[in-house]
């Protein structure tokens, strides 16, 4: 599931781009071998052949006619391809709209219209249904980022003050990795996310779970209290509680996500505790402080357990 | 050309002529060597410094390779890694690639054109010293941890004050400032030198391909660098004074930077490649022992590349959300540039086929170049395909592509050139070339080929680490091993140079490769003893006995006619002799000016404003001293016989003068910057939409004030014209008085406009609208300052009796630039006052 391979595709546009890549490699290889072949003949060939290559007409043929023909064909092919990319699925449902906002160094993901007067907000993970067009509306809150899900489509830049759109579609359920590809500061390298494609019923079920506010069963009361005392709510929102800050990721259903720290570590109770204690050691320069000195062991375990239970 | 006497002239030369020539061209000895200006020495210093900076940048790349060998490595922490990759990229582009090819031109062109020197030797020497000093400090910034860390492309808002509060970004913006100055100084030198310092008879059609390439290179600098100059000025204004050009919250647009940067940045690639291609076009015929096949096609291809490269910049921005119609256009343009490159590749193959290639070291590097560069060119076509680029963009595939293009397209030709031209500069020959070649060829391919794979497997660029489980380990280990092999090659190259390169003017055999071009004539510090009459493209092949005739002083200008350093000036197209220009010799002024310039920018970086101003004043004083003592010497003697029946003056005024040409080139640079100012207005207008440009609540001054400003500014030009007429009639103090009046008019016009804008309540910090109006003001007032210095300079020359009806080059140069400044000011007024009114209702 860590693959970011361009050829490890999961949707029609990813397939098209992979096919295009093979076409380009094949064509490029033929031309490369041809040019080197000419060079070898020019150096070591028979005198008669070399005389032919030494004619200015050879320059016109190889340097003008050949590239014009090849490149015109390639241009027409790619223009056609560019039109096919992101075409709405014939007879499909209207596309699903998801907003993705880039932050230093994490991803805010919003599902407009999924709650009365708003929508659920999650982070560092985009859940989509299979077989349906999804329009990603992307922008950034601080600096320029770029969203890349190689399995589904190419990059689209996230630029402050501008909303860009990219339509994706996954054919097959599964998790795939994406990453920021525009240099965005210290921890550009550790700004990744997951895309999880699920069958439409599974997606609807996930959405229903997300709609629920966070619950705090009695065994997690201490965790919630630690969260309050440590001031976590100053940056994070947990829907169903008094905390609704938007500086850091929304934690309403943190435990249900696949990774923590924007793809830095897999999600479990231990890594949550590790992240809270040592975010600055795991991902130096990110905006989350390390709480190793502020929280003792039991406190850390309690708050991590509560957060892990939110799914 | 109608020579009245045949050349060569078989008569014996007068006694002492050669000694006098050697005496005036003698190089300064000992510690005075720093005052040297002769291109033979500045060129080598320049190349050596560029090579040293390249080695520094390579060391940084080895650090990065060490860090990336395995995922999760901690040799470099994230922040340091970002500084290292930023300095690596910036240094390779600005401190190595451009200066190295420029240096190659400075070194080779006079020899290839049989000129005694370039037309403005102190300008090249100044450019070299400013670059060398500035470059060292740029690297030193790493040791203090204040090196730039926003990437060599410096995209805002990441590089704006909010997200880069330290001085790191300023180091880039100001540090690149003097590199820009030195690149433009070099471009002026090369354009004027190639067009006006060719030997008689060397028409444009007989010019060596390398000179064509350098000409296109220099013209491209003139039109490309202004965009990055303006971009750095705007970003520095935003950082220092909060003028929001790139902040979307106040009407700015981050994409403005990307357009300006890549309008420079893409031509930059060809700026680096073309001189290298020109070098290959010289080496291949010599190694094959035959003429270049398709000379006309190759020269046309160079010019076409220059043009097309300005239409490609958006192919760095395919993922920014630009409409698909524009993408199709830029994709087509990117494909088109493959054609002139293909022409050159096939011309080299054709030339090799029609001759008998010798597999010497330069030839090995040429073959290595073809292998690596063609591969890089093919991946270049791939990334010009928009949908493919969406996948490849900003991954290691691009890292692989650009290193194939730049190492293949520039480093290998440069090394071919090093081994090919070393006999010109060194008594001893270089010996380890074959080993160097195989280590570098193997190492470079092993380093960069796996990066294609790593990129397509999902490895983004500019990452200090990568997670396990993405399958990237093998490819990164291979790359690191390759980097080590390449480093061995570089160490061996340095050893070869250290052991076997001995600087001297030429070895015993002046033409070891049996080449056809003029740099292989016997050379001294003055280059050739006499300046040959040229009748062919390959004179040493087609004009038998030329070397001996030239060495015996049987061609033009075999000595010095004024007892000073001189070079022959010819017409731009036909190379008909026009006059003998006196060129300056060694001196301190340009060195002090360079120290002042570098100090000015460096002190500004660390915000020592007063110290910076002091350095700036020193630089200005040194430049004025050098102009005062070294230019516009007047007719030091009457017309002199140069042989071949030509008697030429030593002093001309008007359009034939070299200084006039230099100012014209400078005006093209300034005009392009101003064009970019206008682009900034138009781009921000489009980005904001007509309904919010100007933003609501903005009041522009009424049209009365700008009309008066325009009248005052235009009147200043009229007064300058009047002063010209007075000067022609021999007036002196009246000319000075008129220039001061003209200056006052210009100052009043510009001042009035600034005042009107301010009083109308427009502020540069409120919105990008105001910021772009004041950017225009900034540029206009900068020119007012320049004109003020120029006017006072001419007034002082008049007072000293150095300007008159005959001796008037200083005046002519100032007059020409004055007209430019007036024209630019009028266009600036239209941009400020008419454009928003038209744009608002549109």
UniProtKB/TrEMBL annotation, chain A:
Keywords from the named record: Copper, Electron transport, Heme, Iron, Membrane, Metal-binding, Transmembrane, Transmembrane helix, Transport
Catalytic activities: 4 Fe(II)-[cytochrome c] + O2 + 8 H(+)(in) = 4 Fe(III)-[cytochrome c] + 2 H2O + 4 H(+)(out)
Residue span(s) of domain Cytochrome c: 218-311
Cellular location(s): Membrane
GO CC entries: membrane
GO biological process: ATP synthesis coupled electron transport
Record domain Cytochrome oxidase subunit II copper A binding: where: 93-209
Transmembrane segments annotated in the record for this chain: 20-46, 58-79
GO molecular function annotation: copper ion binding; cytochrome-c oxidase activity; heme binding
Superkingdom of this protein's organism: Bacteria
Main location: membrane
InterPro entries to which the protein is assigned, alphabetical: CcO_II, CcO_II-like_C, Copper_CuA, Cupredoxin, CuRO_CcO_Caa3_II, Cyt_c-like_dom, Cyt_c-like_dom_sf
Family: Belongs to the cytochrome c oxidase subunit 2 family.
UniProt protein name: C-type cytochrome
Annotated organism of origin: Falsiroseomonas algicola
Lineage: Bacteria, Pseudomonadati, Pseudomonadota, Alphaproteobacteria, Acetobacterales
